[in-house]
Design a protein that fits this description.
A hairpin with a 5-residue loop joins strand 7 and strand 8. This protein is of the alpha/beta class and 644 residues long. The chain starts with a helix and ends with a helix. Helix 5 runs antiparallel to helix 9, helix 16 packs across helix 17 and helix 27 crosses helix 28. It has 29 helices and 21 strands. The protein folds into 5 domains: 34 residues, no CATH class; 153 residues, Beta-Lactamase (2-Layer Sandwich); 117 residues, Beta-Lactamase (2-Layer Sandwich); 172 residues, P-loop containing nucleotide triphosphate hydrolases (Rossmann fold); 128 residues, Helicase, Ruva Protein, domain 3. The structure holds adenosine-5'-triphosphate. The site of adenosine-5'-triphosphate has 18 residues, from helix 17, helix 23 and helix 25. Adenosine-5'-triphosphate binds next to helix 17, helix 23 and helix 25.
Length: 644
């Protein structure tokens, strides 16, 4: 009873740890209930191992040769962890943070951090080769994470040794491809209870990224599929990963995959992927390759999947499979996103705007893309990222219109554990933080609620973000691309979009032309066909003429679907797409479009086309006439008609 009373009065864990320490010294026994359960169990183990509070910190001296050998033996882990350690240490530089990587015995492999902290680290036995196992140094984040094989946070005098009670340490285990413990990643800062919660999410995010990188590099000879129950989580540290061989057998899964599938690793290993997906592996792979992804409806969950890796070299496969693999590789190449040059190739005004946008991105200017639905805003955003200096960093896309209003804020900024009822254990890292060092693409920015616009503006001005429910502020270093199909200036006039935010986002504005106003329709068609693996196909003149007359309300997306359907309807040996290969629905659309009711639209489209081509040809009427395949006289006549 007296303990319960004490516990209520002293809810501060540091105070409780101090009292536990005093009682232990006084009574020779650790009183139960004073420490958090994980720490109490660890203190009990430390006592059993004979560690004492006052034990000195001296590191057993490892020779330079031993350290070299240790590093050599853990080369892969060290190199895969390096980018994350670098990122973490820059993020926590202000708090004099040290980032430590240890092996599965809690022996330090490498340290990174603020120079002053590192100079001091030696006196705390924080150096490569020093062992921080729990049975030699008592409760500490490295050693305890190794014993528990789960993340641990140890603040101040929760550490067993008095000598390290000046630190707050947060560690996360790093698991190998078979779920075995490989090592531990740790962030050590000065003892500070307020900050340590934020440290936990940063360390866990980094550890998951390291595990995913290890997974991908380990299965380079095999097929890797990424999946999640929410499409926005693909490409994030929280995506599920599954490696399969070309027979479709499951070779490995990461922890997130097991959680998403609600099955243990042991229950899935070596089974055919069909047991999860209900589809033959070839069907699934073809779908993934052709459509850049697949949606799987399982019994109680929908999974969004993407092909993360397809092996370049396939060893020892029977001929039939080799030829399937070749096909698959070809399809994958074709399914790749178009490059920036491809997007603007035959459209000089667009090409120029894209060149400027790329320069802008590399000089930290935000880019605002505007265009009707299906004009390729996301394609352009990805192409800009892929060609920017941040190409090897994350590209995180958020569709502001697709996320319910109440969730956008937590999605963007993340939240601390316990920030609100129902918040996920361990909190959630927001999109801003996930995109750090890379590019954040905010699609449909015009649909962002006003209250959130104010917060976004503040983040962009201060270049810092902090999760909901408080916690550590994180410095932001992101390229920002926003897109909308709305006319933002009108939204500003209507007071539904903040004017100051508009100017903040519109560093470089790019207007993506509607398909009906593009003079390079045939180039786009050729590109689409080649990406479908059908570059050899021709389009009948009659079809092309109809396409040119059509208004394409769905723009390139609609054109892509029409072409896909046409290719699918070709009979064996046919090499030309004619009207017979268009769907009845679409032919009806085309007919309606050319009927008198739509005549006005067509006229406007025609004029838009002529004007745009004239602009591209810098006012040269002859060149415009040649490009459009009509006479100079027709151009003059149509322009006069319009002026009349
Ligand atoms: N330049 C291009 N060349 C080939 N295909 C393209 C090009 N631009 C877009 N596409 C294709 O058109 C489709 C729509 O592109 P995207 O999603 O980028 O458009 P969007 O403007 O972002 O559309 P929405 O506003 O509806 O989100 C995609 O399937 C994409 O592959």
């Amino acid at each position: 009873m007296p303990y319960k009373l004490e516990q209520r009065i002293y809810s501060d864990p540091l105070h409780d740890a101090q009292r536990a320490r005093e009682r232990l010294l006084l009574e020779g026994e650790l009183p139960s209930g004073f420490l958090r359960a994980q720490i109490e169990a660890s203190w009990q183990r430390s006592l059993k191992a004979g560690v004492r509070f006052k034990d000195p910190l001296v590191a057993q001296q490892s020779s330079a040769c031993d350290v070299l050998e240790l590093k050599e033996n853990h080369q892969t882990l060290i190199s895969m962890a390096a980018p994350e350690m670098d990122h973490l240490s820059r993020q926590f530089n202000r708090d004099k943070g040290m980032v430590i990587l240890a092996n599965d015995q809690a022996t330090i492999l490498s340290l990174l951090g603020d120079r002053r902290s590192l100079n001091n680290a030696g006196s705390y036995a924080l150096q490569s080769g020093a062992c921080w196992s729990e049975d030699t140094r008592g409760t500490n984040a490295l050693g305890t994470a190794v014993v528990d094989a789960k993340p641990v946070m140890i603040n101040g005098n929760e550490h067993f040794l008095d000598g390290v009670s000046c630190f707050s340490c947060t560690s996360s285990p790093i698991m190998g491809v078979n779920g075995q413990l490989l090592g531990v990643l740790d962030l050590t800062t000065e003892a500070n209870e307020q900050h340590i919660q934020g440290n936990m999410s940063a360390v866990q995010l980094a550890a998951r990224n390291i595990e995913n990188r290890l997974f991908i590099s380990h299965f380079q000879e095999h097929v890797i599929i990424a999946f999640h129950s929410r499409s926005e989580y693909l490409h994030s540290a929280w995506q599920g990963l599954i490696a399969i061989d070309l027979e479709g057998n499951i070779l490995a899964l990461n922890e997130q995959a097991c959680q998403l599938l609600k099955k243990s690793r042991e229950n899935l290993l070596n089974l055919p992927i069909e047991t999860i997906t209900g589809q033959a592996p070839t069907v699934l792979l073809n779908q993934l390759l052709r459509n850049n992804g697949a949606t799987l409806q399982l019994r109680d969950v929908v999974l969004y999947c993407e092909l993360l890796h397809f092996p370049r070299q396939l060893k020892g496969l029977p001929a039939r499979k080799e030829s399937f693999a070749k096909d698959a590789r070809k399809l994958k190449r074709q399914a790749n996103h178009p490059s920036l040059q491809k997007v603007g190739a035959e459209h000089p005004r667009l090409a120029k705007a894209l060149r400027m946008a790329l320069k802008g991105i590399d000089h930290d200017l935000p880019v605002l893309l505007n265009g009707e639905t299906g004009t390729g805003k996301e394609v352009v955003a990805r192409a800009l990222h892929n060609q920017s200096q941040r190409a090897d960093k994350p590209f995180i896309a958020v569709n502001c219109a697709a996320i319910p209003e109440g969730l956008i804020e937590s999605e963007l900024f993340g939240y601390r554990e316990g920030a609100f009822t129902g918040s996920r254990k361990g909190g959630m890292v927001g999109r801003f933080q996930q995109a750090n060092s890379g590019t954040l693409f905010l699609d449909e920015i015009g649909d962002m609620p006003l209250a959130l616009q104010a917060r976004l503006l503040r983040v962009l001005q201060e270049r810092k973000v902090s999760p909901l429910g408080g916690g550590e502020e994180v410095d932001l270093d992101i390229a920002l691309i926003c897109a909308t199909h709305r006319d933002i200036k009108t939204l500003v006039k209507e007071d539904t979009f903040r004017e100051d935010l508009y100017y903040r986002l519109n560093g470089v504005g790019v207007q993506l032309p509607a398909l009906r106003a593009r003079s390079d329709l045939d180039v786009l068609i050729a590109d689409l066909l080649s990406r479908m693996g059908a570059a050899h196909l021709k389009i009948h003149d009659e079809v092309l003429a109809m396409f040119r007359q059509y208004a394409w309300p769905g723009n390139i997306r609609q054109l892509e679907m029409v072409m896909k359907a046409a290719v699918a309807f070709l009979d064996e040996g046919e090499k030309e797409i004619t009207i017979d290969h268009l769907t009845d629905d679409f032919i009806e659309e085309l007919n309606t479009n050319s009927s008198s009711g739509r005549a006005a639209t067509i006229k406007v489209t025609e004029l838009e086309l002529i004007r745009n081509t004239l602009e591209q040809c810098e006012g040269n009427v002859s060149a415009t006439a040649t490009t459009l395949g009509i006479s100079r006289a027709t151009i003059y006549r149509k322009l006069r008609e319009c002026e009349a």
